[in-house]
Amino acid sequence: MELSAVFALLAALSWTLAGLTGHAPARALGSLHFNRLRMVVASAWLAMMILITGGQFSLSTEFLMPVIASSLIGVVVGDYFLFVTMRRLGPRRTAILFAANAPIAAILGWLFLGQTLSTQVIFAIFLGFIGVILAIIYGKRRDLLHVWEDVLPPLWIGVGAGFMAALGQAVGVFLLQPAMAAGADPLVAALLRAVIAALCFWLIFPFERSKSVPISSLSKRMWMMIALNGFFGLSFGLALLLKALETGKLADVTMLSSVGPVIILPFIWYQTRKMPAPGAWFGAVLVVACTWLLAIADKG
After folding, report:
1. Which helix (H) or strand (E) holds 158?
2. What is the C-alpha separation between 60 and 183, in angstroms, rounded?
3. What does the alpha-carbon distance between residue 263 and residue 261 come to, in Å, rounded to a whole number?
């Protein structure tokens, strides 16, 4: 196996761990308060990574607007809805719904860039849609009562938030792609995105302070979960993906880094002591297959 493939798979594992470590804080703090804390932590992680790798804290002014827009839509909006979904549906269903950003990106390319939807792309989108339905509706065992599989009703709110998170991610990447192609430093861009998102989340803090858990009341375990989520989700996972892209082809790296919905199932199995339902496995495989087909189509 090529080294780029190893890094891509490790990135998928890192993002899976981010999802698992984000569930408890999202439920305890709510999406807004959790995101304002994790963005600060992620900014610190990214700054340390730039220092360790010898990077420069500078970004050309021509890249500022795309990065800011990507942060507002992809991080502020996307991550807010991501952890609304996490809080309401748990990490497994959230991973499935978030993976829908791949077919959403294909549809955005068709709507706004004039890209054609080939038969393969249409089939991939259909597979992804069926996979999401199977994983959500038929993905839970009736005898499984673990908190990771709890659903806060009504179901449609969590599902809608999940699709909004996927849409935010797809649009955020869509907006950021030209800057990356033009040579913007990915780590500096990621740091700026996190800092902007942190500022936005903290600016609205005074308007909902009564609904937030005081920082002084957070346990050491909760702080550890927030720190791990910021590390695995927004810094280390990103660094692994960038490392994979140094020597690997974009389509191959995209395919390998998209297997999170399948990787998460053994963790669910271990934590709950019960094998996930067949619908969970089959739905996750279909969603991953959807991403693979889209990546192959883009490669062609």
Report:
1. helix 155-181
2. 10
3. 6
Residue 144 exposed, middle or buried by CB count within 10 Å (0-12, 13-18, 19+): middle
Tokens of 147: 């908190």
pLDDT digit string (tens) for 76-118?
Answer: 998 899 889 988 888 888 888 887 777 777 777 777 767 677 8
Token representation of residue 103 = 């077919």
Judge contact between 201 and 36, C-beta under 8 A: yes
State the pLDDT at residue 199.
94
Residue 28 burial (CB count, 10 A): 15
- How many Cβ atoms sit within 10 Å of the Cβ of residue 80? 21
Cβ-contact 85, 35 below 8 angstroms: no
Compute the distance between CA of residue 15 and CA of residue 257 in angstroms, rounded to an integer.
9
Cis, peptide link before residue 154, omega less than 30° from 0: yes
Structure tokens that stand for 65 in this block:
């607007």
Can you read off the two tokens belonging to residue 276? 């996930």
The 8-class DSSP code of residue 209 comes to: G
Task: State the chain's mean pLDDT as an integer.
Answer: 82
Angle at 17 between CA 203 and CA 270, to 5 degrees: 135
> Which residue's entry shows tokens 């938030």?
161
Element (H, E) at 121: helix 119-137
Q: With beta carbons less than 8 A apart as the criterion, state whether 176 and 70 touch.
A: yes
What lies within 8 Å, CB to CB, of 185 at 6+ separation is 55, 56, 58, 59
Cβ atoms 73, 174 nearer than 8 A: no
Query: 19: closest CA among 237, 293, 274, 250?
Result: 237
